[in-house]
């Protein structure tokens, strides 16, 4: 990958990578840091990367950086914070987007990631499999389970208008 191809990759995919990370993480500053770290890793390996595979490499790197961050910080959630999240999820909402966002946050991280890559970013099952190191059939199963959970969550009695 040449410098100009790298710059084109930054221009073309930075917003998509940021949206993907932000949707999974919900923290603006940390999302910016993960995107920046992903581009830094790409810059370091730019000579080894085929320009045609730049998007896939970038999303794969961002995904793995996100997973590393979540694993590193998963032990730091306090009990008070967990109580706040639980109380917030049971309050009455009538806005479908808010309900959907709550439901997406409740998904396991693998299901949330593959769902975001498919429905928000438009990747094919095969591309998602390459990014997440899952087989195509595993990706389909995770997306199916995530959509099934979202459907059940959205029509649950506490969120009915």
Characterise this structure.
This protein has 161 residues and is an all-alpha fold. The protein has two domains: 3-75, Rna Polymerase Sigma Factor, Chain: A; 78-156, Winged helix-like DNA-binding domain superfamily/Winged helix DNA-binding domain (Arc Repressor Mutant, subunit A, Orthogonal Bundle), CATH 1.10.10. Helix content is 76%, strand content 0%. The chain has helices at residues 3-25, 28-44, 54-73, 79-90, 96-106, 109-120, 125-132, 136-154. Helix 6 packs across helix 8. The longest helix is centred in the N-terminal third of the chain and has 23 residues, at 3-25. It is globular. The model is unreliable at 78-93 (pLDDT under 50).
Name a few traits of the molecule.
161 residues; mainly alpha; Rna Polymerase Sigma Factor, Chain: A; Arc Repressor Mutant, subunit A
Question: For this structure, what is the CATH class of the largest domain?
Answer: Mainly Alpha
User: Share of helix among residues?
Assistant: over 70%
Tally of separate domains:
2
Summed up, the helix count is 8
Number of strands: 0
Overall structural class, as computed from helix and strand content, comes to mainly alpha
Order of helices and strands: HHHHHHHH
Radius of gyration based on Cα positions: 17 Å
Shape: globular
Which fold name corresponds to the CATH topology of the largest domain?
Arc Repressor Mutant, subunit A
Overall pLDDT score: 81
Sheet having the most strands: none
Q: Which segments are poorly predicted (pLDDT under 50) over 5 or more consecutive residues? A: 78-93
Give the terminus-to-terminus CA distance.
53 Å
If classified by CATH, what would the architecture of the largest domain be? Answer: Orthogonal Bundle
| Beta strand % | under 5%
CATH H level, superfamily name of the largest domain: Winged helix-like DNA-binding domain superfamily/Winged helix DNA-binding domain
